[in-house]
Amino acid sequence: MAFTSSAFSAAIALLNPHLLSSNEPVSSSSSSFSTFSSSKQLASSWKPNTNSNPFSVQNAVSLKWRSRVSFFSGLFTKPKDAKTLKDELFDAIAPLDRGAEATPEDQQRVDQIALNLEAVNEIKEPLKSNLLNGKWELLYTTSQSVLQTKRPKFLRPNGKIYQAINLDTLRAQNMETWPFFNQATANLVPINARRVAVKFDYFRIAGVIPIKSPGSGRGQLEITYLDEELRISRGDRGNLFILKMVDPSYRVPL
After folding, report:
1. Interatomic CA distance for residues 27 and 24, integer angstroms
2. How far is CA 14 from the centre of its chain?
3. pLDDT one-digit tens code per residue, 75-98
4. Sign of CA dihedral 223, 117, 130, 140
């Protein structure tokens, strides 16, 4: 419709052996007791400098322990709720001119927040929910057929864009405002409890001149998030649509 994605890292300790050498000459006449005593004193006086060796056993164990603490801290991090995610989403799309000014990085960020919201969606069957009924304002989309960013700005839809849905009649309507005021109406055919096929029947140029659809105006729309103020939908061409409710009482013309 044109409106239409732990293992812990193993801490490997590379133990470099300290090679001890003595430059003192050893007398052949030294007693075995003297040799043993000297060796014992040398051994007792030598201690590995674990503070200066980054690959020491002590540092490796410390690194492994910190990694475990960090991992388990992540397990107990409280996930963001829908309200927090919605606030993030509204902040992210606010400067993007309905998506026309979005960079690929902006699009990726918005899509990730939308995915996070979809993951906490409580309405699993939106086509059975009355919250879907009414008139919605388009806040953001990736659809070029809506944004028309290749046109000069004065030839694009510059006013608000709306989409209305009525479940009892399975009707939908897309409405542009300034400067063209074009409209389109369509019949909805449920595919499952989240997805509908969209079949346009009439287009209205400037909102008054009706033109019957030639039959090629078709698409699909999936409602992936729904509550009383926000709807997220995805089209069959991969486009993202984010809308807010403006009039739950609106009726689509039959």
Report:
1. 9
2. 40
3. 556 789 999 999 999 999 999 999
4. negative
